[in-house]
Amino acid sequence: MNELESRVRGTVHIVGAGLLGASVGLGLRERGVDVTLEDLSPTAVALAADYGAGRIREAGDPEPSVVVVATPPDVVADAVERALAEFPDAVVTDVASVKLAPYLELVRRGAPLKNYVGSHPMAGRERGGAIMARADLFTARPWVICRDRDTPAEALSLVEAIALDLGGVLTEMTPEEHDRSVGLVSHLPQVVSSLLAARLVSAEEQAIALAGAGLRDTTRIAASDPELWVQILGANREPVVALLEQFSADVAAFTAALRDADAPGAKRRVADLLAAGGRGVGRIPGKHGSSERFITITVLIDDTPGELGRLLTELGELGINMEDLRLEHSPGAQIGFAEIAVLPEAAERAVADLTERGWRTL
């Protein structure tokens, strides 16, 4: 199969022209798929069309083979029900980040679900809208498929074809399994990040000026859209509340041990909780889903045009395989830090080779 040849046949209709919907459209259009767009906002759908995510659907267009619902979570059930009625021969999927609540609502309404397959690509950005859409947004990201036991094989294969076309890695779960899982790896981190970042609102400027990579890492997603997250958290509140209660218990235990740090066993309790965090991080998949751990080398670079490009070029010339890259700037100084993750066995050689070429490493 040609790299850009699509597995999808027929027209794909996208309901919702925001970040996810427009990104689906951009990715499918790159593979030559006919994509039509629909959104309650004329401006949003026109903008997505202008960016090349598809064409605005018109009366008289043929029925699509697949409908992708990419609306906010609180109207997903409405949009899916409407699509099933309007396009009875099409397969309908949605990309909402909560799966159980929309499914149960559709069942309650008695909607015909034979051609409905819920799905969820684990991808996104802090800011939404078609202007932030990317054709490669889903590349190498898990794409969860929540099939029903009565789902026809052909319906399932069409949804899988879209996920594969967009570079997703297929994973099958029940709606309950999906919601518990995203509650842990997505929804709880959002709440914790937002609450931590909220502590900065009243902080003194001299404290904020000391912020480094640790604070940036733990608060990055706090810039996400609050209105969208109110919907997501409300729809998945039971798993998230349970997780928050467990997290709160850990915070309380940590606080109690630290408050009386000289009490017998207190230091061990603090150490055990911190060590548990390290074990948890060790379970997060690395590059390509592997469990490999990397060593980070920090390279000092002048904060001038072209320096980062020169560093990346020389890494390639030295045959150093960079697994990850993060950049940090030093406040008030014309210098930056490039944190390069490499495999442990390559770290010593990388430091030596870069130093020999005049780079400063930490």
Going by helix content, strand content and strand pairing, the class is alpha/beta
Can you list the strand order of the major beta sheet? 3-2-1-4-5-6-7-8
| Oligomer kind | single chain
Q: Quick check: average pLDDT?
A: 90
The number of distinct helices, counting runs of at least 4 residues, comes to: 13
**Beta-strand segment tally:** 12
Shape: globular
Whole-number count of domains: 3
Distance between the ends: 46 Å
Percentage beta strand: 15-25%
CATH superfamily of the largest domain: NAD(P)-binding Rossmann-like Domain
Give a summary of the structure in a few sentences.
By secondary structure, this protein is of the alpha/beta class. It has 13 helices and twelve strands.
How would you describe the overall organization of this protein?
With 362 residues, the chain is α/β, with parallel strands linked by helices. The chain has three domains: 162 residues, Rossmann fold (3-Layer(aba) Sandwich), CATH 3.40.50; 103 residues, 6-phosphogluconate dehydrogenase C-terminal fold; 73 residues, Alpha-Beta Plaits. Helix content is 45%, strand content 16%. The strands form two sheets. An eight-stranded mixed beta sheet has the order 3-2-1-4-5-6-7-8, sandwiched between helices. The longest helix has 24 residues. It is globular and about 65 Å long. It starts with 11 loop residues before the first strand and ends with a strand.
